[in-house]
Amino acid sequence: MQILRKEERPIAGVALVVFAALNALLIANHWQSFTRGAHVGFWSVFYNHLNMSGYDIFSLIFISCMRLHWNALRHPLFVVLLLPLFGLNRLIMPPTEFNAAVLLMAALLVAADVWGAVLMHRLLRDVVEVRRVDAALLTALFYGFAHVMIATMVPDHFALSLPLLLLTLLIAGRKLKEGKPMKLWQSALLFFLTAGVTLTNGVKVVLAAWFAGGRKVFSWRSILSFVVPTLLLGAIYVWQQDAIVAPQERKIKRIEAAVAKKDPVRIAKLKEHNDFVKQQNGEALTKNVPLLEWSDITTDRWQSAVDNLFGESLQLHRDYLLEDVQQTRPVFVQYRSALNYVVEALLVVLLAIGAWTARREKFFLMVLAWFGFDMLMHMGFGFGLNEVYIMTAHWAFIIPIAAGYILRRSNSMAPRVLVAALAVWLWAYNAAIVIDYLC
Question: Nearest to residue 368, comparing CAs of 381, 356, 384?
Fold first, then answer.
């Protein structure tokens, strides 16, 4: 696979400037506190100062002091990706008292962001087969979505998941065009990396292999190509639990016991906050069965779709701007202007018409199956439903892909003008709000 084509160089160049600027803006906003490397508690430094929409900042804590605060079962490979950054920061911080965690993580994010933009453009050109200018427009549209834009700059795993998903789509899409199954080493490696960063995304690699290979995906060799990386990820998870999590939990329990004796008021406040979080998360099917405790059967689905799934995901709300639903943001927030609802409706209509246009395209049906899995998980099961917008980077590429099939089959300027207008609006609206928020 060619690393960078001539027509992709402007895309990569613009992406590098834009995403580096967004990351630089976030870092500059917290420079004094984030870069302190001596006599500080890294939880208070990062968690108390950077809380955009509830995205995790735990990668910065890990790079600073190798404390793991995320769910290792859901992100078993995240530690492996961050360990080299921790090692490098360990060489920098002690002698200089300068914490380079934010700079190292930003470098990783920007590299993933640029790679993702190039892959999105290449996918639209090679698989959807749109014209060059249309591919550029649709790529701009995608990264103009509010929580795709936010994901490119916050130190969470979403910016790392996105290019892996796009790479899977590109490889599977090419195989579909060739009428060939994915190679076993490809599906195994993609599953290992994609599921390793976000466990549930491994299902999408399996779906991609199934669409490309049909019944061959059920052969023992194909099944083994998923079993082996699963076992490897399991071994990595067990190692993390034994080497990092268990000693850390013992230490935390000792600290909590000491705090409970010295400051019972603080413990009471923590309990009060935990009760608030449970209320925000909705009622689970059961709290006694693993995984099912993450379900939500009470949060309203229709309002979630309007205000969050196709609302906050694509256009930021000015009220409770970028606040965390686990802290101060209500589950549902309305827009101040009717124009936002008009834009939301246009994007949904664009998706619907594109889906109808591409209904006989096997590649689009695969993308639709991915989207269906995400909707089953979030809107059906209720996982992360109260903050479904932070998962936008895992599914929103279906909108530019669907729109791509409209543009490919239309010689009219009308859909191109609509896509261009939406892209300009999203960037003008979302970027202006983000920049104002950080400044």
Answer: 356
Report the phi/psi class of residue 406: left, alpha or beta, with left for phi > 0 and alpha for psi in -120 to 50: alpha
User: 285 near 298, Cβ under 8 Å?
Assistant: no
d(CA 233, CA 210): 21
The helix (run of H) or strand (run of E) holding residue 147 is: helix 146-149
Contact 211, 170 (CB under 8 A): no
Q: pLDDT tens for residues 343-384?
A: 999 999 999 999 999 999 999 999 999 999 999 999 999 999
Looking at residue 45, its pLDDT comes to: 85
Q: How far apart are CA 116 and CA 167, in angstroms?
A: 8
Residues 6 or more apart whose Cβ sits within 8 Å of residue 105: 59, 60, 63, 85, 155
**Angle made by CA atoms 75, 81, 86, in degrees to the nearest 5:** 115
The SS3 call for residue 390 is: helix
Counting as low any pLDDT under 50, the low residues of the chain are none
Q: Which residues does 301 contact at the CB level (< 8 Å), separation at least 6?
A: 379, 385
State residue 274's pLDDT score.
Answer: 60
Strand partners, 98: 36
CA distance 407 to 128: 10
Query: Are the C-beta atoms of 402 and 288 separated by less than 8 Å?
Result: no
CA 263, CA 182: separation in Å to the nearest integer?
58
Indicate whether this model's pTM tops 0.90.
Answer: yes
Q: How many CB atoms lie within 10 A of CB 388?
A: 28
Q: How does pLDDT run across 306-319, given as a tens digit for each residue?
A: 999 999 999 999 99
How many whole angstroms from its chain centre is CA 275? 27
Residue 305: partners with Cβ closer than 8 Å, 6 or more residues away: 379
Token representation of residue 63: 């790079």
Give the bridge partners for 52, in sequence order.
Answer: none
Q: State the Cα–Cα distance between residues 374 and 369, nearest whole angstrom.
A: 9
Triad 419, 173, 309: Cα angle to 5°: 45
